[in-house]
Design a protein that fits this description.
3-stranded antiparallel beta sheet, 18 helices, mainly alpha, Cytochrome p450-Terp, domain 2, Rubrerythrin, domain 2, binds s-citryldethia Coenzyme A, globular, 6 strands
Length: 433
């Protein structure tokens, strides 16, 4: 096969000017043109709405190939991590770049377990929310509220120890907050973490346990949720992670940066899609399950309806996470003895879309959100809780990306623009004489 020649520089011709811009190649062969000097050399900036062609940073955390449907955390394929690892080990891997030794792992788990309790005064804020407040709004507020209880974490020049402790605190406390949000929505007393449980079991205990009863976690459910958290743990520079990095680039503290990530993830085009998928499938089911009709609606430009859980900015092939979750769906539901008719609708919808020219042409495949909600539902979570579960999984990715950005001393993020508004004009007092 002909060896591909990688140029050292890109040559840009602008009118009578020619400038050379350096080429930067990643460890997986991704190619880029470094435009750091573009404006100095030419007076021009680039314009790229939605950053579809723009790399914001160099990162060593996650690699994904959208054409080949590849996803790796720190070089490890997601398929292997989902099958053989657990969420705590994956969180350690994302934080520190290597898999832990046995001692490092037990130390990490012990430190995380020790910080699961949330300060009682946080409840004063929490109790102010109406019981039907959307879980993402509550989580976003509570995450930022936590910063008030750890003033040392506000120091932008905190040392490695302090930053590490803050990351562990956030990782440890989010399950407690998420479980409290669920308990409030069903009018139950909140539960407190029990350190005898592992991370996922503790979360399930606080979410579904009752003070008056012993809690026996179903290993099928613990395994399914652990796998879902692993699959959501990081995804390079997606909307919410880029938000965490952008907010962190101003030297804002990790709590505020993660709260911003929660806010970005809430959007229905991003993490909010997992809630929308279930609502869409329910709507199709109550409409008689006419899948063909809804596929046509999704194609109709005059119809705002989109096939939620389908399509992706980067994956132009199957989202590898969706493949794993789809397999887990069948496995978990059959082990739990659940037949959920919307799983059948989801499969019919996928089959219809993948045969339809509109979706094939645009390379629209099921993404991570298409099947995840069906498992969350089988575990017993209400639909409105699905996106906070996405946030719980994405948390180690957000924190790792924040840490990487701060350690590489990246400058404050401040994109430029092309102004298209009114040119200069003199003030005329039209309204006020
Ligand atoms: C996540 O970035 C990440 O990594 C995100 C994520 C992560 O782990 O962080 O993977 C998690 O957010 C997954 C995506 C969840 N969102 C959804 O499922 C919502 C439905 N999907 C779309 O809205 C859309 O596909 C996006 C937002 C995911 C991607 O949008 P893009 O890249 O901006 O693509 P686009 O909107 O320009 O679509 C290209 C074409 C358009 O048609 P044309 O104008 O070319 O005729 O495809 C069409 C779109 O109308 N299209 C869809 C569609 N998605 C795209 N048509 C119908 N249904 C859809 N779902």
């Amino acid at each position: 096969m002909k060896q591909k020649v990688i140029p050292q520089n890109a040559l840009l011709k602008l009118g009578d000017k020619e400038v050379e811009l350096p080429v930067v190649i990643g460890t997986e062969g991704e190619e880029s043109i470094d435009i750091n000097k573009l404006r100095d050399l030419t007076g021009y900036i680039t314009l790229d709405s939605g950053y579809k062609n723009t790399g914001a940073t160099k990162s060593a955390i996650t690699f994904l190939d959208g054409e080949l449907g590849i996803l790796r955390y720190r070089g490890y394929p997601i398929e292997q991590l989902a099958e053989k690892s657990n969420f705590m080990e994956v969180a350690y891997l994302l934080f520190y770049g290597e898999l832990p030794t046995a001692d490092e792992y037990s130390d990490f788990v012990e430190k995380t377990t020790k910080h699961t309790l949330v300060h009682e005064d946080v409840k004063k804020f929490f109790e102010g929310f109406p019981s039907n407040a959307h879980p993402m709004g509550q989580l976003c507020s509570l995450m930022c509220t936590l910063s008030s209880f750890y003033p040392d974490s506000l120091n932008p020049n905190a040392g490695k120890e302090e930053i590490d402790l803050t990351m562990i605190r956030i990782l440890a406390k989010m399950p407690t907050l998420v479980s409290w949000i669920h308990k409030k929505s069903i009018g139950h007393q909140v539960m407190y973490p029990l350190n005898k449980y592992d991370y996922v079991t503790n979360f399930l205990y606080m979410t579904f346990g009752m003070r008056s009863e012993d809690y026996i976690a179903d290993p099928v459910i613990v395994d399914a949720l652990d796998k879902l958290l692993i699959l959501h743990a990081d995804h390079e520079q997606n909307c919410s992670t880029s938000t965490v990095r952008m907010v962190g680039s101003s030297q804002a503290n990790p709590y505020a940066s993660v709260a911003a990530g929660v806010a970005a993830l809430w959007g229905p085009l991003h993490g909010g899609a997992n809630q929308q998928v279930i609502e869409m499938l329910e709507k199709i089911k109550s409409d008689g399950g006419n899948v063909a009709k809804w596929v046509e609606k999704a194609k109709d430009k005059n119809d705002p309806f989109r096939l939620m859980g389908f399509g992706h900015r980067v994956y132009k092939n199957f989202d590898p996470r969706a493949k794993i979750i789809k397999q887990a769906c069948d496995n978990v539901l059959s082990k739990l003895g659940i037949h959920d008719p919307i799983l059948d609708i989801a499969k019919q919808l996928e089959e219809a879309a993948l045969k339809d020219e509109y979706f094939v042409e645009r390379k629209l495949y099921p993404n991570v959100d298409f099947y995840s909600g069906i498992i969350y539902r089988a575990i017993g979570f209400p639909t409105e809780m699905f996106t906070v579960l996405f946030a719980l999984g994405r948390l180690p990715g957000w924190l790792s990306q924040w840490k990487e950005m701060r350690e590489s001393n990246e400058p404050i993020g401040r994109p430029r623009q092309i102004y298209v508004g009114a040119t200069e004009r003199d003030y005329m007092n039209i309204a006020i004489r």
